[in-house]
Amino acid sequence: MQIGIVGLGLIGGSLGLDLKAQGHEILGVSRRDRTCTVAVERGVADRASTELSSLSEADVIFLCTPIGQLQTTVEQLIPHLQPSTILTDVGSVKGSVVSTIAPLWPNFVGGHPMSGTHENGVDAAVRDLFVGNPYVLTPIDSTPPASVETIGHLVTAIGSKLLHCDPESHDRAVAWISHLPVMISTSLIAACLAETDPAVFDLAQALASTGFRDTSRVGGGNPELGRMMAEYNQSALLQTLHQYRSKLDQIIGQVETGEWSALTETFEATRSARPKFLKES
Ligand code: NAP
């Protein structure tokens, strides 16, 4: 199959490496010449250019630009496409993306790989990034079932666990397990920066170990991605943030009044609930 990838960064580049290894011909498009050169050198793509017209023969095109660039990219791509070309994206938000792109190109399948690292750009692309992780497709009533099946086969072949849901449910679910954690982790790091005693601040940095590494990881990632989550999933994210603030207020109250049994009950409830979110652990 001829597969186009627009946006040869962490996700687009990693898809290119894995799909090329599956025997597909990969045609890459990115914004900068340097990215295109590196992509070919690294085996991300067989050919790469800055011209969307180079994708006119592609059977499937993965749109892997930042979410804010998707609409313009599709509008510029459409004059070059054959009617049978399947477009799919990898954006972390689905409601606004699907409602914008599907009317422009009905043969569009919304998608989101639940994989990533804290790095970005083509140099960050790695093999097997998607292995064992969920990859969710968000078809709507007008999405051609055969196209959903084609994308499903491609992402399953690179080791992803395939799921389907509607775009709105996707956005509410990822607000809980992906977008809210980024905001919490960011707030944690920002709160630590508020320590005013330089000796304590230096000591905290010297003592930080696995606990801080785990809890701060997603707050130390790509700033552009965090902003996109908030901007494009504003309503679902706000609901989770308000719920989180309410839980935090409850814990503050328990600590202030010394309700240690109630606090222990909270810890016990969360200890038993956590594995349900992380089924393999
Ligand atoms: P990234 O590493 O920054 O890659 C994005 C790439 O898009 C950049 O390398 C840039 O290429 C290219 N680009 C930007 N504007 C473009 C344009 N107008 N035309 C063509 N190429 C353009 O970001 P990423 O982490 O891969 O994220 C890409 C998408 O994946 C986003 O929609 C995000 O929501 C989604 N996603 C990310 C993660 C994650 O954890 N990172 C996980 C799941 C989904 P140049 O180098 O040529 O400038």
- As residue ranges, the low-confidence spans are none
User: What is the count of β-strands?
Assistant: 9
Please indicate the percent range of residues in DSSP E strands (runs of 2 or more): 5-15%
Distance separating the two termini: 36 Å
Task: Give the helices and strands as they follow along the chain.
Answer: EHEHEEHEHEEEHEHHHHHH
Biggest sheet record? 6 strands, parallel
How are the strands ordered across the major sheet? Answer: 3-2-1-4-5-6
Ligands: NADP nicotinamide-adenine-dinucleotide phosphate
- Residue-averaged pLDDT, rounded? 97
* Class of secondary structure makeup: alpha/beta
What is the gyration radius calculated from CA atoms?
Answer: 21 Å
Principal-axes geometry comes out as globular
Assign a percent range to the helix content: 40-55%
Total helices: the number is 11
